[in-house]
Structures are given as C-alpha cells and as structure tokens.
Amino acid sequence: KAGVTQTPRYLIKTRGQQVTLSCSPISGHRSVSWYQQTPGQGLQFLFEYFSETQRNKGNFPGRFSGRQFSNSRSEMNVSTLELGDSALYLCASSLAGQVSYNEQFFGPGTRLTVL
Amino acid sequence: KNQVEQSPQSLIILEGKNCTLQCNYTVSPFSNLRWYKQDTGRGPVSLTIMTFSENTKSNGRYTATLDADTKQSSLHITASQLSDSASYICVVSDPGGNKLTFGTGTQLKVEL
Fold first, then answer.
1. Cβ atoms of residues A39 and A14 within 8 Å
2. Least Cα separation, residue A105 to chain B (angstroms)
C-alpha cells in the first residue's frame, strides 16, 4: 500500500506570494491533518480535514487555509507569505476516527522557503 | 497549557551503546502517548503507541516505558546503530479525541 505523498517536495517563494501544497493520503484513510515544523518549535498543528470538512483547527492566522476533496486528497494554501512561514509542512493521514485514537502516518513533507 | 518536554535536547553516543530519552508531560488526562522517529528531511514514523494503562511497549530495539503517576515516559534504544541517528519526538493525545501535543524532540547522533 502506497504511503502518504506530498507535492511539491521543495518550494521557494518570495514574500507576499501565495502557495498551494498538496497531500494524497493512504488509500482508505479519510482524515488528513497538516502540521508546520520549524527548528525549536516542533510540530504545530494547523488543521484536520475529514470527509471534506474541517474538523479541527490550530492557532494559525487566516492566511493558512485548506480543503479536502471527495477522494480524501487535501490541499493547504498560504496567502501573503511571510519570512516566518519558512518551514517543513507535513501532512498526516489516519483512518476515520479521531486523531487521538488513530495512528497517524506522515508524508515526507514540503520544504517551503520564503525569501 | 498542556506541554510535552523532552530531554536531552541532543545526544551523541557511540555505535553499539544504549541510550535513554526522556519525555515529561502535563497533559492530563490523556488517551495515549506516542514516540516517533524522524530522519532528516523525512516525515515522522511511529515507533510505539501506549495507552494510559500500559507500562511498556517494545518495537525491536526500541522500548518505551510510561509512568502515568509521574507523567513521565522514556524511550530506550538498545545496541544503537548508525541508522538510529534521527530526531525522536514524544506526542501525547487528549481523550477528547482531537488534539495531539508534540514535544520538540531529542536529536540523537550515533557515531562510529
């Protein structure tokens, strides 16, 4: 069974631009979560989608948004990029239940650099 | 505020040696505690998942222990290998079902 895939793997943008990242979960997984990882901060939860609906949301500004499609694939968008948005963005998928009770499987991440 | 603190922040050991990583948490109550291994440039991979009622769980050379009374967990690595060089992340989940609290990780380097 194929793992979680994320595209692109690397991205370089300039301040003020916007970016869209994509995540394809493991087949049969309906929950997709997004995380931002920066040195010293660890993984910070962005949001979780289940059945095309945002089920949970972390403490990030409205510039960060996401969506999920009927095939469970998910995208996240960051508008008006800031230097501080440079990070590794990780996507994780799990079965239908709550993330606290189901093992999450992470993708390789998208490394975003904002210049 | 629920927190998960890991120590040491970084560690260097020689190949073949054992080591123990620590995780202290304030999340209470909690439903389970997880340890992940993250290689550089890759996503985290699950090593162990323990419920609050479990004291120990092993995965090959990795053994996690949990003391729910003191809110401490440890990850013991036996006979370390170069491939064990990675960041090890402790994660605690709340029983409400929708929140995971991540530690900032311990960076382990195994040298010849």
1. no
2. 7
Give B68 to chain A, closest Cα distance, Å: 17
B93:A92 CB<8 A: no
Kindly tell me the sign of the dihedral angle through the C-alpha atoms of A90, B39, B60, B56. negative
How far, in Å, CA of B57 to CA of A22, rounded? 34
Q: How far apart are CA B94 and CA B99, in angstroms?
A: 6
Say what the pLDDT of residue A99 is: 72
Alpha carbons A56 and B96: distance in angstroms, whole number: 12
In percent, how much of chain A has pLDDT > 90?
A: 81
CA A8 to chain CA centroid, nearest Å: 12
- Kindly give, in sequence order, each residue whose CB lies less than 8 Å from that of residue B85, ignoring residues fewer than 6 positions away: B108, B109, B110
Using the beta-carbon criterion (under 8 Å), do A108 and B43 form an inter-chain contact?
Answer: yes
**Taking 90 as the threshold, does the pLDDT of residue B39 lie above it?**
yes
Per-window interface: A 34-63 vs B, CB < 8 A = 40-45, 48, 55-56
What is the longest distance spanned by two Cα atoms in chain B?
Answer: 45
Decide if B105 contacts B4 (C-beta within 8 A). no
> How much is the CA Rg of chain A, to the nearest whole Å?
13
Q: Does A104 touch chain B (CB under 8 A)?
A: yes
pLDDT the model gives residue B97: 64
